[in-house]
Amino acid sequence: MSEHLNCNACEAPLGPWLSMSIDAIKNQPTPYSAVKKCSACGLGMLDPLPPADAIPSFYVLDSYYTHGDGHVVKRPPTIADKILTKLAWLMDRRRPFEPAQIAERLPKGGKVCDLGCGHAHHLKRFLDLGFEVTGVDPDAAAREFAALAGITVEAGTGEDVPDTLSEGSFDLVLMTHSLEHCRNPRKALENVFRLTKPGGLCYIEVPNCTAEHFKTFTVCSTMFDAPRHMYFFSPTNLKQLMRNIGFVPIDMLYDGYVRQFDQSWRGWETTIADRLASHDPSQKPRRHSFFSSVLLLLRSFWRSPDEKYDSFGLLMQRPQV
Description:
This protein has 321 residues and is α/β, with parallel strands linked by helices. Helices cover 31% and strands 21% of the residues. The protein is built from eleven helices and 13 strands. The chain has helices spanning 55-58, 79-91, 99-103, 121-128, 140-148, 185-195, 212-217, 235-245, 263-279, 290-300, 305-308; strands at residues 14-19, 22-23, 28-29, 34-38, 44-46, 111-115, 132-136, 153-154, 170-176, 196-207, 231-232, 248-255, 311-317. It has a seven-stranded mixed beta sheet with strand order 8-7-6-9-10-13-12, sandwiched between helices. Strands 1-4-5-11 form a four-stranded antiparallel beta sheet, with no helix packed on it. α2 (79-91) packs parallel to α10. The longest helix has 17 residues, at 263-279.
């Protein structure tokens, strides 16, 4: 029976959307194959959600982007690949998250917390800028990698933060590509609000399910990554969810365009399609060929940032009162 009857963000009914019968990285069948979509705000989510005690097993991997060399195998580019990525670079107007720029909005030497920090690469940059940093992550391997950089990361999640983190004590709270890994993103964002000082900032970055790349390759997109990703956001529904919790919008950032055309990403997404077809011959997944990349480049040329970039981030403020 489905665990969810309504959307986690707006309580509207859910309807069928996508189906992915395997964990692509592990190349194994998964019982968490159904993704439903909210009829009102468009939020996507696994339904049913994995039980909390099953989630740690999803990260028992030889490599993942939070630790090790990553699961996307590097492939040497051909001349055609170089031309394609050069064209994408010329069309790229990304506005990525830059700690040095965000630091200008914060008190000197302030406190920064990253929930779901992985190997703590953002925290390392804030530490180098003179900030006091705190990390939280459930993945023991990621915490070990962070320790190598001299950063102590406590065990926990966005929904279950350590008791040592005091309410209203951080000038900036981050969740970069971690909210989609939470079973209950509303609870995680409520914790972000609680930890942020009145007048302080938070930055939430997630994969963009309204991107042309995601809409083209869906479950074979690198950004799909279920069952580790349990929720699938758009700029509209995440902004509304955060407003409902009490945050005030400050800015929206976008990243992830040129990499959509990278030969290594294309190779990995082709591997996903091949693995899915091998496990389930009834499936006819869209393979990310070089020709598909060319068509994607042409379709995305005039798209708005909401549809062009594979990731977006919201910079929000907790009101003073």
